[in-house]
What does this fold into?
Amino acid sequence: MVILIVGGTGFIGRAVARKLLAGGQNKVIAMDFTPPNQMFLEKMAAYPGAFEYVRGDVSSLDDIVGAVKTFGVEKIVNLAYMMAFESERLPRAVAKVNVLGMTNVFEAARLHDISRVVYATSIGYYGPQSNFGDKEVSEDDVGRPTLVYGITKQLNEIAADRYCDQFGMSIVGLRISNVFGHGRECERTAAWFSSLISLPAVGKPISLDVQPSSTFSLIYVDDVAEAINIMLSSSTQYRVYNTGGNTASLGQVTDVVKKYLPDAEITFGNSSGDVGIPYRVSCSRIKSEFGFRPRSLEDGVLAHINEARQEAGLEPITA
It folds into this structure.
């Protein structure tokens, strides 16, 4: 199976590529504006002939169609997206990448009879937790986003529905919780979790300006890759699924880090960590249909720590 990952050299894209290649039956084409980093290329060397990188821009339909035609692509994953913080600052760019780019993926799939498209939507679709009280947010809840990022995710889901209804396509969206893991380069929320775990893992202090009580729905990056693999390879009853995640504050994540790294130096500030997304997110739909649920926070943090230590040439930490 030849699978195109648009945004394939990014943080989640790299994990998805590793997951898809591990089974030994797929060929992965990673299309991205940014070339893959050296560590990722070294990991891909374990799959000779099964991985290709092609430079491309999601806002160009011709780039996507070119990759589909050149490599005989059968399925597509779209992960190319501007994140929440930059989406608020760059309205024209966010429309070009997040709205036009996603629609380009759907259109390329329509033009070339792609059998399945899986795309990253987000719990940002729902808006803040305050919209729902203290309940777990499910796929049946109506989203009321307050950020541009969440609004573009709603537009993506509407477009996906139209392509499915009008053209009989198979398109599935994953409403992904806050993703953590080593190697994420981003601003605000994503950077908090990357730094909070990656720096202590290699003996470095970390100081965040945000309050430790700031709470999120957290999922380890390899679990997101597993959920995407399920969506690519399975018949689905629905067009959208939450990944779910572990509800935890930054302070609780710190406690887990210090369980494995007692000497970790972590300090916090007083800025609000409210980023307009829910922190109680149900995974009941994907769990009941496929048996999927994210790993525990403890297991995810340990995996994150050890990936950072491996990159630094340090011995792994054991549970």
In short: The radius of gyration is 19 Å. Residues 126 and 143 are 4 Å apart (CA to CA). The chain has a mean pLDDT of 94. The longest helix spans residues 91-111.
